[in-house]
Amino acid sequence: FSFIFSVFSGLFGALFVFIHKRIAIFRENNRLYLYIFGKNPLFFTLFMAAIVGIVTCPDGTGQYFAGKFTFRETLADFIANCTFILSNKTAEGCSKERLERWIGINHEFSALSSLAIYFCVYFILVAICISLAVPAGIFVPSFVIGACGGRLIGEIMALLYPQGLRGPDGPQIFPGLYAVVGAAAYTGSVTHSLSIAVIVCETTGQLSPLLPVLIALMIGNAISSFLQPSIYESMIEIKNLPHLADLPPSRISVHKLKVENIMIHDVLCITKSTTYGELRELLLATPHLRSYPLITDSSKFLIRN
């Protein structure tokens, strides 16, 4: 299951970076967008604030996916050591208060549909909102979205195997553990960071999920890196900020190559004994050069202090 988590996390992480990049390019180049909102980011920020408020309104569409709760509250539900599906059936079921957040007071919603809607809505909203002209982080939203995806898969597994994969005598299925693995794998796929595994262990205070977290994190990171750059690198490229170029792949033979094999031996330079005529001829012969090394001795090529 760690492999399944890693594949889905890598694909969705790359898709998230791609969507964010397309949104940023659309805002910069689309004529209709520029005609409506102009180049001032304040108007689009206010527009998106209204959209987020409408979508997550508890009395409207927000009631279908726990829209009135913060990321901290929903994350606590995702990693809780209980199940939404098996509530009131087994001892592993969640409390009534926690369950009502996702299925309603009168059980009018499905926990699986609420989790799926939560994942899709915030997947799109976060991709748009991190491009706004307001301070916003990407780590916590990605962590919560990944936890939601992991919780969704964990609840499906609990529904399919209510007594565990090996029966009542074997290990039981805890969707909270799936949420932890999903959060780490998806966040690592978006940020291309491997330190998420350490953060997960420090947050939970347990080492039991370390192995599945590492497997899902590394494979998901590899898949996402193959498809898209990290979200931070993508933002740097979109804003044309200075950054280090990607190092091209090299073979082992390159590491044995010496500087003298690729350096220029016939160096044009100026010494303290160079005459005006020689300097003039040098400048006329090399109009493409903008600077010349000033050395002490032309035989030893020592740079003059």
Task: Describe the protein in words.
- With 305 residues, the chain is mainly α.
- It has 2 domains: 1-239, Orthogonal Bundle (Clc chloride channel), CATH 1.10.3080; 252-295, no CATH class.
- 55% of the residues lie in helices and 1% in strands.
- The chain has 12 helices and 2 strands; from the N terminus they run H-H-H-H-H-H-H-H-H-H-H-E-H-E.
- It has helices at residues 2-29, 31-37, 41-55, 71-78, 96-103, 111-129, 139-160, 175-191, 196-204, 210-227, 231-238, 276-285, and strands at residues 270-271, 294-295.
- The protein has a two-stranded parallel ribbon with strand order 1-2.
- Helix 12 links the parallel strand 1 and strand 2.
- Helix 1 packs parallel to helix 10 (210-227), helix 6 runs antiparallel to helix 7 and helix 8 (175-191) runs parallel beside helix 10.
- The radius of gyration is 29 Å and the shape is elongated.
- The mean pLDDT is 83.
- It is a multi-pass membrane protein.
- InterPro entries: CBS_dom_sf, Cl-channel_core, Cl_channel_volt-gated, ClC.
- This is Chloride channel protein.
- It comes from Brugia pahangi (Filarial nematode worm).
- The chain crosses the membrane at residues 6-25, 32-55, 115-136, 143-161, 173-200, 207-227.
Strand and helix map with partners:
Layout: H1 2-29, H2 31-37, H3 41-55, H4 71-78, H5 96-103, H6 111-129, H7 139-160, H8 175-191, H9 196-204, H10 210-227, H11 231-238, E1 270-271, H12 276-285, E2 294-295
Parallel strand pairs: 1-2
Helix pairs in contact: 1-6, 1-8, 1-10, 1-11, 4-7, 6-7, 7-8, 8-10, 9-10
InterPro entries: CBS_dom_sf, Cl-channel_core, Cl_channel_volt-gated, ClC
Subcellular location: Membrane
Protein name: Chloride channel protein
